[in-house]
């Protein structure tokens, strides 16, 4: 633990000392869409909700690991969002015909709770805990509902793809 001649540093002093190196670290590992300061702030908030910086043996290492995990979670979330956008673009391209005047027709194949889960997770970027709270179900049920809805959309899109057997 870092200390000074008058005694141990408090959390604010520790963070002030660590901030420049944490900010640089976050700037290097962050997804392009994320701000480095936001990553550092998220890591600090999550760390302080569990323990004080002064109680950690190596607060710098702990914070870097937290930043890395948060950045990794953001990267996964962004990847899911990109895949979803590609899937919905494909839905729009493949469903535009006189038989399917709107991409919403394919989404309407899903029940309203499935559409709600997809909207809340993909468009609004909410986590499954928040979605479960909105829908009045468990987090696992929200995840399962989202997975089922995506699977049903993929199957519907795949079944409607023209085949090149001609």
In total, the number of strands is: 2
| Total domains | 2
Read across the widest sheet, the strand sequence of neighbours is 1-2
Q: Work out the radius of gyration.
A: 23 Å
Order of helices and strands: EEHHHHHHH
- Span between termini: 73 Å
Helix content: over 70%
What would you call the structural class? mainly alpha
Largest sheet: 2 strands, antiparallel
Low-confidence stretches are none
Q: Overview of this structure, please?
A:
Helices cover 70% and strands 2% of the residues. The mean pLDDT is 81. A two-stranded antiparallel ribbon has the order 1-2. With 166 residues, the protein is mostly helical. It has helices spanning 11-29, 36-50, 59-95, 104-107, 112-123, 128-135, 139-160, and strands at residues 3-4, 7-8. The protein folds into 2 domains: 3-73; 96-160, Arc Repressor Mutant, subunit A (Orthogonal Bundle). It has 7 helices and 2 strands.
Give a quick summary of the entry.
With 166 residues, the protein is mainly α. 70% of the residues lie in helices and 2% in strands.
What's the topology here?
Elements lengths: L2 E2 L2 E2 L2 H19 L6 H15 L8 H37 L8 H4 L4 H12 L4 H8 L3 H22 L6
Helix pairs in contact: 1-2, 1-3, 2-3, 5-7, 6-7
Annotation keywords:
Arc Repressor Mutant, subunit A, 7 helices
């Amino acid at each position: 633990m870092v200390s000074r001649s008058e005694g141990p540093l408090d959390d604010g002093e520790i963070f002030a000392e660590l901030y420049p190196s944490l900010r640089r670290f976050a700037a290097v590992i962050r997804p392009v869409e994320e701000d480095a300061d936001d990553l550092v702030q998220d890591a600090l908030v999550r760390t302080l909700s569990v323990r004080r910086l002064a109680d950690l043996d190596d607060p710098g290492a702990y914070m870097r690991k937290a930043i890395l995990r948060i950045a990794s979670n953001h990267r996964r979330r962004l990847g899911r969002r990109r895949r979803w956008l590609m899937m919905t673009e494909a839905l729009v391209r493949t469903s535009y015909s006189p038989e399917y005047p709107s991409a919403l027709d394919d989404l309407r194949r899903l029940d309203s709770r499935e559409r709600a889960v997809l909207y809340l997770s993909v468009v609004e970027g909410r986590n499954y805990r928040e979605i479960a709270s909105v829908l009045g179900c468990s987090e696992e049920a929200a995840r399962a509902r989202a997975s089922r809805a995506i699977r049903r959309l993929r199957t519907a899109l795949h079944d409607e793809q023209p085949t090149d057997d001609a």
